[in-house]
Structure formats: C-alpha cells, structure tokens
Design the sequence.
C-alpha cells in the first residue's frame, strides 16, 4: 500500500498528514508556549525582586542595630507595560490627588519607565491638562 498524505481520523474524515521528521507546532501553539514561559519568567523576576527588597530591609535593620549605616538604597522595581493612553490616564489621576510630584515619584508610584513619564507629563503640560508646579 502506497504511503498517503491523508489518513483517516476517528470520525471518518480525511486528515492531511505531512511526512515530517520532527513535529512542527503551529505558530499559535508556539506563541502560547512562549507566552507561558514569559509569564513564568515575570513571576520569577517579581519573586526575586521581593527577595532582594526583603534582604535590603534586613541589612538596613542590622545597620541600625549596630549603630552603622549599612543601608542599600537601590530597590528593584519591575516596570509595567501598559499603553501610552493608559499611562496618561494614570498619571493624570495621580497628579489630581497630589500637590507636588517629581517625575521620579510618578515613575516609582506607577511602576513606569522614567523617560516615558517625562515624555507624557511634558505632553500633558503642552496640552494644558496639567500645570508645572510653582
């Protein structure tokens, strides 16, 4: 019997069966696997960041206990990826509820890229939606 590129399924309909040496995944399956791996990596980054922050806190407490300054000032912040429109809304909401904020304060509070915050605030100022602090 000659090899056929079609085989019967359990439902009796022919199914195309190419002869491949290695199984090939459709792009959607590959995308799902990639997205799953990215999700796992993001979770790991978050856990590692929390652990670094916890250890920094312990170092700070040890320094206070010994009467020394052992503080570690850097804190790991995992930046969020959101649309520019969403970032604008969140920045405006944050500015509405505060008297005076610096770019760094906004970036830290919203976990956004500092350069993007500066760009958005500058745009909001030029549109007259927010004013520069006096």
Sequence:
């Amino acid at each position: 019997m000659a090899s056929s590129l079609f085989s019967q399924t359990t439902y009796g309909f022919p199914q195309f069966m190419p002869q491949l040496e290695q199984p090939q995944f459709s792009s959607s399956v590959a995308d799902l696997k990639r997205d799953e791996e990215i999700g796992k990596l993001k979770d790991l980054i978050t856990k590692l960041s929390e652990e670094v922050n916890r250890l920094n806190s312990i170092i700070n407490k040890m320094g206070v206990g010994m009467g020394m300054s052992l503080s570690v000032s850097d804190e790991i912040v995992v930046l969020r990826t959101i649309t520019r429109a969403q970032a604008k809304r969140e920045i405006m909401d944050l500015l509405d509820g505060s008297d005076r904020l610096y770019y760094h304060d906004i970036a830290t509070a919203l976990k956004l890229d500092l350069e993007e915050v500066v760009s958005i605030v500058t745009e909001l100022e030029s549109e007259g939606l927010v004013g520069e602090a006096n």
In short: The chain has two domains: 27-71, 79-134. The chain has a mean pLDDT of 77. The chain has four helices and two strands.
